[in-house]
Amino acid sequence: MSSPPLHALAYVSRASEPLTRAKLNEIVAGAMEFNGQNDLSGALIYDGTSFFQYIEGPESALVAAYERIRASRSHVVLLELLKGVVPVRRFDGWEMFYAESAPSGIEGLNWLPGREPTEAARRDIVANSLRFFWQSFQEKQGAADPA
């Protein structure tokens, strides 16, 4: 019996207003709790104006997480970049890997409803952001391993 396919979602959005560190910590803590209870893992970048988030896990849990994300008043103009089946879990064991003020590439993203990036540009944004996540994740893992 095979396990159900793993799904992933990536999106960018603009913060509805500048977030205090306390509010940001509240958002991350809420995501970690929800994700931990629902077998989701992922990563979040906030650069002071925009969010990039990648989440992975069972499809039903991902749908519930996305509904919570879309209902949040912390951001506006949500643009879905990736949604579908993925071959492997990238952030296994991390309910939410978080990076703040990171050189993620999203700070230069200037899009408005009706003027979203092309499909190729969306793939580039996801690829660049995931590359950043993966490098940061590996660095953090290396710092955590005393070996």
Describe the overall structure.
- The chain has 147 residues and is of the alpha+beta class.
- Helix content is 38%, strand content 27%.
- The chain has three helices and five strands; from the N terminus they run E-H-E-E-H-E-E-H.
- It has helices at residues 21-37, 59-71, 119-144, and strands at 6-15, 41-46, 50-57, 75-86, 97-100.
- The radius of gyration is 15 Å and the shape is globular.
Write the layout of secondary structure elements.
Elements: E1 6-15, H1 21-37, E2 41-46, E3 50-57, H2 59-71, E4 75-86, E5 97-100, H3 119-144
Parallel strand pairs: 2-5
Antiparallel strand pairs: 1-3, 1-4, 2-3
How would you summarize what this structure contains?
The chain is α+β, with helices and mostly antiparallel strands. It is 38% helix and 27% strand.
> How many β-strand runs?
5
Main beta-sheet annotation: 5 strands, mixed
Proportion in helices: 25-40%
On the 0 to 100 scale, the average pLDDT is 76
Distance between the termini: 37 Å
Assembly state: single chain
Number of helices: 3
The portion of residues forming beta strands comes to: 25-35%
